[in-house]
Amino acid sequence: MPRATVDTRAEIRAAALELFAERGVEATSLREIAERIGITKAALYYHYASKDALVGELVDPMFAELRELGDELEGRPVDAGDEAAVRAVVERFWELCLRNREVVRVLIHNPALIARAEIAPRMLHWRERVDAVLVGSDDPADRVRAVVALGGVQDTVIVFEGDDLAAVRGPAIDAAVRALQPGRP
Amino acid sequence: MPRATVDTRAEIRAAALELFAERGVEATSLREIAERIGITKAALYYHYASKDALVGELVDPMFAELRELGDELEGRPVDAGDEAAVRAVVERFWELCLRNREVVRVLIHNPALIARAEIAPRMLHWRERVDAVLVGSDDPADRVRAVVALGGVQDTVIVFEGDDLAAVRGPAIDAAVRALQPGRP
DNA sequence: GTCTATAGACTGATAGAC
DNA sequence: GTCTATCAGTCTATAGAC
Protein backbone atom coordinates (compact mmCIF):
# COMPACT_ATOMS: atom_id res chain seq x y z
CA MET A 1 0.00 0.00 0.00
CA PRO A 2 1.35 3.47 -0.87
CA ARG A 3 1.91 5.72 2.12
CA ALA A 4 0.49 9.11 3.06
CA THR A 5 3.83 10.89 2.86
CA VAL A 6 5.94 11.51 -0.15
CA ASP A 7 9.42 11.40 1.32
CA THR A 8 9.82 8.07 3.09
CA ARG A 9 13.61 8.41 3.07
CA ALA A 10 13.37 11.65 5.06
CA GLU A 11 10.95 10.01 7.48
CA ILE A 12 13.36 7.13 7.97
CA ARG A 13 16.23 9.54 8.68
CA ALA A 14 14.19 11.52 11.18
CA ALA A 15 13.08 8.43 13.09
CA ALA A 16 16.56 6.92 12.99
CA LEU A 17 18.28 10.06 14.23
CA GLU A 18 15.86 10.32 17.12
CA LEU A 19 16.35 6.70 18.19
CA PHE A 20 20.10 6.66 17.60
CA ALA A 21 20.53 9.84 19.67
CA GLU A 22 18.36 8.47 22.46
CA ARG A 23 19.62 4.90 22.80
CA GLY A 24 22.71 4.60 20.68
CA VAL A 25 23.20 3.04 17.27
CA GLU A 26 23.97 -0.51 18.34
CA ALA A 27 21.01 -0.57 20.70
CA THR A 28 18.57 0.47 17.95
CA SER A 29 17.36 -2.05 15.38
CA LEU A 30 16.17 -1.31 11.89
CA ARG A 31 12.89 -2.97 12.78
CA GLU A 32 12.27 -0.34 15.47
CA ILE A 33 13.01 2.48 13.07
CA ALA A 34 10.74 1.03 10.42
CA GLU A 35 7.86 0.38 12.80
CA ARG A 36 8.04 3.90 14.20
CA ILE A 37 7.04 5.29 10.82
CA GLY A 38 4.66 2.45 9.99
CA ILE A 39 6.60 0.42 7.45
CA THR A 40 8.38 -2.92 7.65
CA LYS A 41 12.07 -3.55 7.89
CA ALA A 42 12.07 -4.87 4.33
CA ALA A 43 10.64 -1.59 3.06
CA LEU A 44 13.40 0.28 4.87
CA TYR A 45 15.94 -1.83 3.02
CA TYR A 46 14.47 -0.64 -0.25
CA HIS A 47 15.53 2.91 0.72
CA TYR A 48 18.81 2.18 2.49
CA ALA A 49 21.10 -0.67 1.56
CA SER A 50 22.42 -1.14 5.08
CA LYS A 51 22.46 0.26 8.57
CA ASP A 52 25.88 1.76 7.86
CA ALA A 53 24.55 3.58 4.82
CA LEU A 54 21.76 5.06 6.92
CA VAL A 55 24.13 6.17 9.66
CA GLY A 56 26.46 7.65 7.06
CA GLU A 57 23.74 9.77 5.53
CA LEU A 58 22.69 10.98 8.97
CA VAL A 59 26.08 12.27 10.03
CA ASP A 60 27.06 13.67 6.66
CA PRO A 61 25.50 17.16 6.95
CA MET A 62 27.41 17.89 10.15
CA PHE A 63 30.70 16.75 8.67
CA ALA A 64 30.05 18.94 5.66
CA GLU A 65 29.51 21.94 7.93
CA LEU A 66 32.67 21.19 9.88
CA ARG A 67 34.66 20.89 6.68
CA GLU A 68 33.28 24.21 5.46
CA LEU A 69 34.21 25.89 8.73
CA GLY A 70 37.65 24.33 8.62
CA ASP A 71 38.20 25.35 4.99
CA GLU A 72 37.15 28.88 5.69
CA LEU A 73 39.38 29.33 8.73
CA GLU A 74 42.34 27.34 7.46
CA GLY A 75 45.54 29.22 6.85
CA ARG A 76 44.51 32.24 8.86
CA PRO A 77 44.89 31.16 12.46
CA VAL A 78 43.20 33.16 15.15
CA ASP A 79 45.36 35.45 17.29
CA ALA A 80 44.83 34.20 20.85
CA GLY A 81 45.07 37.79 22.08
CA ASP A 82 42.27 39.01 19.82
CA GLU A 83 39.32 38.24 22.03
CA ALA A 84 36.71 39.29 19.50
CA ALA A 85 38.16 36.92 16.90
CA VAL A 86 38.32 34.06 19.40
CA ARG A 87 34.75 34.71 20.44
CA ALA A 88 33.57 34.74 16.83
CA VAL A 89 34.98 31.24 16.23
CA VAL A 90 33.54 29.90 19.49
CA GLU A 91 30.15 31.33 18.55
CA ARG A 92 30.22 29.61 15.19
CA PHE A 93 31.18 26.34 16.81
CA TRP A 94 28.33 26.72 19.29
CA GLU A 95 25.81 27.37 16.49
CA LEU A 96 27.13 24.38 14.58
CA CYS A 97 26.75 22.11 17.61
CA LEU A 98 23.29 23.47 18.27
CA ARG A 99 22.08 22.91 14.72
CA ASN A 100 23.49 19.38 14.75
CA ARG A 101 22.92 18.48 18.36
CA GLU A 102 21.29 15.15 17.68
CA VAL A 103 24.21 14.15 15.49
CA VAL A 104 26.61 15.37 18.19
CA ARG A 105 24.82 13.09 20.58
CA VAL A 106 25.06 10.14 18.21
CA LEU A 107 28.79 10.68 17.66
CA ILE A 108 29.61 11.12 21.33
CA HIS A 109 27.68 8.04 22.26
CA ASN A 110 28.99 5.69 19.60
CA PRO A 111 32.75 5.37 19.55
CA ALA A 112 32.61 2.24 17.44
CA LEU A 113 31.02 4.28 14.68
CA ILE A 114 34.18 6.08 13.72
CA ALA A 115 35.89 2.75 13.16
CA ARG A 116 33.31 1.65 10.57
CA ALA A 117 34.61 1.74 7.04
CA GLU A 118 31.78 3.82 5.66
CA ILE A 119 32.18 6.60 8.17
CA ALA A 120 35.77 6.83 9.32
CA PRO A 121 37.08 8.58 6.17
CA ARG A 122 34.52 11.32 6.57
CA MET A 123 35.37 12.08 10.17
CA LEU A 124 38.91 13.31 9.59
CA HIS A 125 39.41 14.47 13.11
CA TRP A 126 36.54 16.92 12.74
CA ARG A 127 36.80 18.71 16.07
CA GLU A 128 40.56 18.42 16.23
CA ARG A 129 40.73 20.46 13.08
CA VAL A 130 38.63 23.21 14.59
CA ASP A 131 40.75 22.99 17.76
CA ALA A 132 43.87 23.55 15.70
CA VAL A 133 42.42 26.47 13.78
CA LEU A 134 41.14 28.06 16.94
CA VAL A 135 44.36 28.06 18.93
CA GLY A 136 46.59 28.26 15.86
CA SER A 137 49.37 26.61 17.79
CA ASP A 138 51.04 23.28 18.35
CA ASP A 139 51.78 24.14 21.98
CA PRO A 140 50.27 21.25 23.95
CA ALA A 141 48.95 23.62 26.62
CA ASP A 142 47.03 25.55 23.95
CA ARG A 143 45.54 22.32 22.60
CA VAL A 144 44.39 21.38 26.11
CA ARG A 145 42.68 24.74 26.51
CA ALA A 146 40.91 24.24 23.18
CA VAL A 147 39.65 20.82 24.23
CA VAL A 148 38.30 22.18 27.52
CA ALA A 149 36.62 25.11 25.77
CA LEU A 150 35.09 23.32 22.78
CA GLY A 151 34.44 20.10 24.68
CA GLY A 152 32.65 22.13 27.32
CA VAL A 153 30.60 24.02 24.74
CA GLN A 154 29.70 20.79 22.99
CA ASP A 155 28.59 19.28 26.29
CA THR A 156 26.18 22.13 27.02
CA VAL A 157 24.01 21.48 23.97
CA ILE A 158 23.62 17.89 25.20
CA VAL A 159 23.28 18.50 28.94
CA PHE A 160 20.82 21.38 28.61
CA GLU A 161 18.92 19.81 25.73
CA GLY A 162 15.48 20.21 27.25
CA ASP A 163 16.17 23.69 28.58
CA ASP A 164 16.06 27.09 26.92
CA LEU A 165 19.23 26.92 24.87
CA ALA A 166 19.05 30.59 23.96
CA ALA A 167 19.73 31.33 27.64
CA VAL A 168 22.58 28.84 27.73
CA ARG A 169 24.35 30.35 24.75
CA GLY A 170 25.75 33.47 26.41
CA PRO A 171 27.27 31.97 29.55
CA ALA A 172 28.56 28.96 27.60
CA ILE A 173 30.40 31.10 25.09
CA ASP A 174 31.71 33.41 27.82
CA ALA A 175 33.08 30.47 29.76
CA ALA A 176 34.70 28.95 26.68
CA VAL A 177 36.33 32.22 25.65
CA ARG A 178 37.74 32.62 29.13
CA ALA A 179 38.99 29.03 29.19
CA LEU A 180 40.93 29.78 26.01
CA GLN A 181 42.95 32.63 27.53
CA PRO A 182 46.58 31.58 27.96
CA GLY A 183 48.45 31.62 31.27
CA ARG A 184 47.29 30.85 34.78
CA PRO A 185 44.03 32.45 35.95
CA MET B 1 40.54 -27.35 33.70
CA PRO B 2 41.60 -24.92 36.44
CA ARG B 3 43.18 -21.71 35.21
CA ALA B 4 46.60 -20.15 35.85
CA THR B 5 45.23 -17.11 37.66
CA VAL B 6 43.49 -17.02 40.97
CA ASP B 7 41.10 -14.13 40.47
CA THR B 8 38.99 -14.87 37.42
CA ARG B 9 36.41 -12.29 38.45
CA ALA B 10 39.04 -9.54 38.37
CA GLU B 11 40.24 -10.76 34.98
CA ILE B 12 36.70 -10.63 33.66
CA ARG B 13 36.24 -7.08 34.94
CA ALA B 14 39.52 -5.92 33.41
CA ALA B 15 38.72 -7.40 30.00
CA ALA B 16 35.15 -6.13 30.10
CA LEU B 17 36.15 -2.58 31.06
CA GLU B 18 38.66 -2.46 28.23
CA LEU B 19 36.18 -3.67 25.62
CA PHE B 20 33.25 -1.62 26.94
CA ALA B 21 35.38 1.55 26.92
CA GLU B 22 36.64 0.86 23.43
CA ARG B 23 33.48 -0.21 21.61
CA GLY B 24 30.59 0.45 23.93
CA VAL B 25 28.56 -1.91 26.08
CA GLU B 26 25.93 -2.91 23.52
CA ALA B 27 28.55 -3.60 20.88
CA THR B 28 30.48 -5.97 23.16
CA SER B 29 29.25 -9.52 23.70
CA LEU B 30 29.92 -11.68 26.72
CA ARG B 31 31.48 -14.24 24.40
CA GLU B 32 34.15 -11.71 23.37
CA ILE B 33 34.95 -10.87 26.98
CA ALA B 34 35.18 -14.54 27.93
CA GLU B 35 37.37 -15.49 24.99
CA ARG B 36 39.76 -12.62 25.64
CA ILE B 37 40.75 -14.22 28.93
CA GLY B 38 40.51 -17.78 27.64
CA ILE B 39 37.29 -19.02 29.18
CA THR B 40 33.85 -19.72 27.74
CA LYS B 41 30.74 -17.62 28.03
CA ALA B 42 29.22 -20.23 30.35
CA ALA B 43 32.17 -19.89 32.73
CA LEU B 44 31.68 -16.14 32.78
CA TYR B 45 28.08 -16.71 33.83
CA TYR B 46 29.32 -18.64 36.83
CA HIS B 47 31.00 -15.43 38.05
CA TYR B 48 28.42 -12.86 36.94
CA ALA B 49 24.72 -13.55 36.81
CA SER B 50 24.10 -11.15 33.91
CA LYS B 51 25.65 -8.51 31.70
CA ASP B 52 23.94 -5.85 33.81
CA ALA B 53 25.49 -7.23 36.98
CA LEU B 54 28.93 -7.05 35.37
CA VAL B 55 28.41 -3.49 34.18
CA GLY B 56 27.14 -2.52 37.60
CA GLU B 57 30.20 -3.82 39.36
CA LEU B 58 32.44 -1.99 36.89
CA VAL B 59 30.95 1.45 37.42
CA ASP B 60 30.44 1.10 41.17
CA PRO B 61 33.87 2.29 42.37
CA MET B 62 33.56 5.59 40.50
CA PHE B 63 30.08 6.24 41.85
CA ALA B 64 31.36 5.52 45.33
CA GLU B 65 34.12 8.09 44.87
CA LEU B 66 31.68 10.68 43.54
CA ARG B 67 29.37 10.10 46.47
CA GLU B 68 32.26 10.51 48.88
CA LEU B 69 33.29 13.76 47.23
CA GLY B 70 29.70 14.97 47.24
CA ASP B 71 29.20 14.03 50.89
CA GLU B 72 32.38 15.78 51.90
CA LEU B 73 31.61 19.02 50.08
CA GLU B 74 27.89 19.08 50.75
CA GLY B 75 26.56 21.86 52.92
CA ARG B 76 29.62 24.00 52.56
CA PRO B 77 29.35 25.44 49.04
CA VAL B 78 32.43 26.95 47.48
CA ASP B 79 32.69 30.74 47.32
CA ALA B 80 33.02 31.50 43.61
CA GLY B 81 35.37 34.36 44.45
CA ASP B 82 37.77 32.16 46.39
CA GLU B 83 39.95 30.99 43.54
CA ALA B 84 42.04 28.65 45.66
CA ALA B 85 38.94 26.86 46.90
CA VAL B 86 37.50 26.57 43.39
CA ARG B 87 40.82 25.24 42.12
CA ALA B 88 40.98 22.65 44.89
CA VAL B 89 37.59 21.21 43.89
CA VAL B 90 38.46 21.20 40.19
CA GLU B 91 41.72 19.40 40.99
CA ARG B 92 39.90 16.72 42.93
CA PHE B 93 37.43 16.27 40.09
CA TRP B 94 40.31 15.97 37.63
CA GLU B 95 42.02 13.32 39.74
CA LEU B 96 38.76 11.42 40.09
CA CYS B 97 38.20 11.43 36.32
CA LEU B 98 41.79 10.38 35.73
CA ARG B 99 41.62 7.46 38.13
CA ASN B 100 38.34 6.32 36.60
CA ARG B 101 38.91 7.33 33.01
CA GLU B 102 37.86 4.03 31.50
CA VAL B 103 34.62 4.16 33.45
CA VAL B 104 34.15 7.78 32.35
CA ARG B 105 34.50 6.58 28.80
CA VAL B 106 31.96 3.81 29.32
CA LEU B 107 29.43 6.19 30.87
CA ILE B 108 29.85 8.86 28.20
CA HIS B 109 29.47 6.33 25.44
CA ASN B 110 26.45 4.50 26.79
CA PRO B 111 23.49 6.73 27.55
CA ALA B 112 21.12 3.79 27.61
CA LEU B 113 23.06 2.45 30.58
CA ILE B 114 21.68 4.94 33.03
CA ALA B 115 18.17 3.81 32.16
CA ARG B 116 18.89 0.20 33.16
CA ALA B 117 17.29 -0.80 36.40
CA GLU B 118 20.47 -2.07 38.03
CA ILE B 119 22.42 1.08 37.42
CA ALA B 120 20.12 4.07 37.36
CA PRO B 121 19.63 4.26 41.13
CA ARG B 122 23.38 4.44 41.68
CA MET B 123 23.92 7.28 39.24
CA LEU B 124 21.93 9.91 41.13
CA HIS B 125 23.02 12.73 38.91
CA TRP B 126 26.67 12.18 39.87
CA ARG B 127 28.27 15.06 38.02
CA GLU B 128 25.29 17.35 38.52
CA ARG B 129 25.82 17.01 42.21
CA VAL B 130 29.45 18.08 41.92
CA ASP B 131 28.36 20.90 39.61
CA ALA B 132 25.98 22.12 42.28
CA VAL B 133 28.51 21.92 45.08
CA LEU B 134 31.11 23.68 42.97
CA VAL B 135 29.09 26.71 41.94
CA GLY B 136 26.90 26.65 45.05
CA SER B 137 24.18 28.46 43.16
CA ASP B 138 20.93 27.90 41.33
CA ASP B 139 21.67 30.70 38.89
CA PRO B 140 21.38 29.07 35.45
CA ALA B 141 24.42 30.97 34.17
CA ASP B 142 26.52 29.51 36.99
CA ARG B 143 25.32 26.01 36.15
CA VAL B 144 26.30 26.52 32.53
CA ARG B 145 29.78 27.61 33.57
CA ALA B 146 30.11 24.50 35.73
CA VAL B 147 29.10 22.25 32.83
CA VAL B 148 31.65 23.86 30.51
CA ALA B 149 34.40 23.62 33.13
CA LEU B 150 33.79 20.08 34.38
CA GLY B 151 32.64 18.77 31.02
CA GLY B 152 35.80 20.16 29.48
CA VAL B 153 38.00 18.65 32.18
CA GLN B 154 36.27 15.31 31.80
CA ASP B 155 36.81 15.42 28.05
CA THR B 156 40.55 15.95 28.39
CA VAL B 157 41.17 12.63 30.14
CA ILE B 158 39.43 10.94 27.19
CA VAL B 159 40.84 13.00 24.31
CA PHE B 160 44.42 12.94 25.56
CA GLU B 161 44.25 9.35 26.74
CA GLY B 162 47.37 8.19 24.93
CA ASP B 163 49.35 11.33 25.77
CA ASP B 164 51.24 12.35 28.87
CA LEU B 165 48.35 13.19 31.16
CA ALA B 166 50.65 14.74 33.77
CA ALA B 167 51.35 17.50 31.23
CA VAL B 168 47.64 17.90 30.48
CA ARG B 169 46.68 18.37 34.11
CA GLY B 170 47.96 21.92 34.64
CA PRO B 171 46.50 23.62 31.56
CA ALA B 172 43.23 21.69 31.90
CA ILE B 173 42.70 22.80 35.49
CA ASP B 174 43.75 26.37 34.67
CA ALA B 175 41.26 26.53 31.82
CA ALA B 176 38.45 25.09 33.94
CA VAL B 177 39.10 27.47 36.83
CA ARG B 178 39.02 30.40 34.42
CA ALA B 179 35.83 29.13 32.79
CA LEU B 180 34.19 29.16 36.22
CA GLN B 181 34.80 32.86 36.85
CA PRO B 182 31.51 34.77 36.68
CA GLY B 183 30.79 37.65 34.33
CA ARG B 184 31.91 38.28 30.77
CA PRO B 185 35.59 37.81 29.96
C1' DG C 1 7.35 0.74 -2.78
C1' DT C 2 5.66 -2.19 0.35
C1' DC C 3 4.69 -6.64 1.77
C1' DT C 4 5.41 -11.80 3.82
C1' DA C 5 8.61 -15.20 4.60
C1' DT C 6 12.92 -16.83 5.49
C1' DA C 7 18.04 -17.51 5.75
C1' DG C 8 21.88 -17.46 8.67
C1' DA C 9 24.34 -15.60 12.36
C1' DC C 10 24.64 -14.03 16.81
C1' DT C 11 22.85 -12.80 21.45
C1' DG C 12 21.97 -13.43 26.61
C1' DA C 13 21.09 -17.01 29.42
C1' DT C 14 20.51 -22.01 31.33
C1' DA C 15 21.13 -27.29 32.14
C1' DG C 16 23.89 -30.65 33.35
C1' DA C 17 28.43 -33.40 32.85
C1' DC C 18 32.99 -33.46 34.77
C1' DG D 1 35.05 -23.64 38.05
C1' DT D 2 34.95 -24.73 33.56
C1' DC D 3 33.07 -27.22 29.97
C1' DT D 4 29.64 -28.70 25.88
C1' DA D 5 25.21 -28.32 24.26
C1' DT D 6 21.20 -26.01 23.74
C1' DC D 7 17.17 -22.66 24.11
C1' DA D 8 14.44 -18.90 22.65
C1' DG D 9 14.87 -14.59 20.92
C1' DT D 10 16.83 -10.98 18.12
C1' DC D 11 19.50 -9.18 14.54
C1' DT D 12 20.95 -7.79 9.52
C1' DA D 13 19.90 -8.83 5.16
C1' DT D 14 17.61 -11.01 1.01
C1' DA D 15 14.00 -13.34 -2.23
C1' DG D 16 10.08 -12.92 -4.43
C1' DA D 17 4.86 -11.82 -4.57
C1' DC D 18 1.84 -7.94 -5.36
From TrEMBL, chains A, B:
Official protein name in the record: TetR/AcrR family transcriptional regulator
Pfam families membership: TetR_N
Residue ranges of domain HTH tetR-type in the record: 6-66
Top-level taxon: Bacteria
PANTHER family attached to this UniProt entry: HTH-TYPE TRANSCRIPTIONAL REGULATOR BETI, HTH-TYPE TRANSCRIPTIONAL REGULATOR RUTR
Keywords: DNA-binding, Transcription, Transcription regulation
Residue range(s) of DNA binding per entry: 29-48
DNA-binding recorded as keyword: yes
